[in-house]
Amino acid sequence: MTVPGPIQDRTTALSRVITLVAVIVPFVGVASAMNLLWGVALRPIDLVVLAGMYLVCGVGITVGFHRLFSHRSFKAGPVVRATFGILGCMTLQGPITQWVTDHRRHHAMSDREGDPHSPHLASGTLAPLRGLLHAHMGWLFVTKGTSRDARLGRDLRVDPVVRVVDRLYLFWVALSLGIPFLIGWLIGGVALGVEVFVWGGLMRLFLFQHATFSVNSICHTFGRRDYASDDESRNVALLAIPTLGEAWHNNHHAFPGSAIHGLGRRQIDLSGALISGLERLGLVWDVKRPTGKRMARRALTHAD
Known about the structure:
Layout: H1 13-37, H2 44-70, E1 75-76, H3 78-89, H4 96-108, H5 127-136, H6 150-157, H7 160-167, H8 169-217, H9 249-254, H10 270-280, E2 284-285, H11 292-298
Antiparallel strand pairs: 1-2
Helix pairs in contact: 1-8, 2-3, 2-4, 2-8, 3-7, 4-6, 5-8
């Protein structure tokens, strides 16, 4: 099978500017919180909104963009699909179509030439470090959005739910930042609104962005390989909770169609648990899981 090529050699200038804003603004917010608010303006409401928005918007990426739209590992009706799509957009990681097509290309060329964010393709002095930095954030300014080939995203482009959600992407971004401010303002006025905006908006985006970035960088460099896969994907237990289960990355690359990534008894997978819960409620169906026989066939006897 011929892998579709990128639609352009580099990320567009507009995309680089948008990405820069999405990465820098949360960082500035974190710096502001550390320098101006720490010990002065940190209240329970800030932590509640931060944690709540982190989880709710985070599953938009892990369950929605990744397991539903990218890998079609389960099925859901239009309301559930739209909800996960909107929540994913609220993480500021791009519209559904862009995120999914980049991710599908990553799987098609994982850790080989053409992978948009492999840490193993750098050359020259300090190649391992340069590769790690590229996989973590550098690719956002170089190869992000270059994979929107029709063959990678044909199903998305004819999907009315995806088309509507993508068209309103900037609105979902504004909503993502506006909700924390609104909660704080309703409880304690403008000053508390700004405070909650910093913690539940900017800090939350900063933390979740780097949790997601770590899957591309750390989980392709360090950790344990439990199953055979044609790349360097690895499981990193310490990142399992902040990534909502995505850090069982070797499991995922070994069984990319599986809706559940935490395949071991002690492998916490919050996104997989949510999918299983929605399945029991009848809100999602055809949830894919690898059989014990398939897992046994791919299991590595000596994990590295």
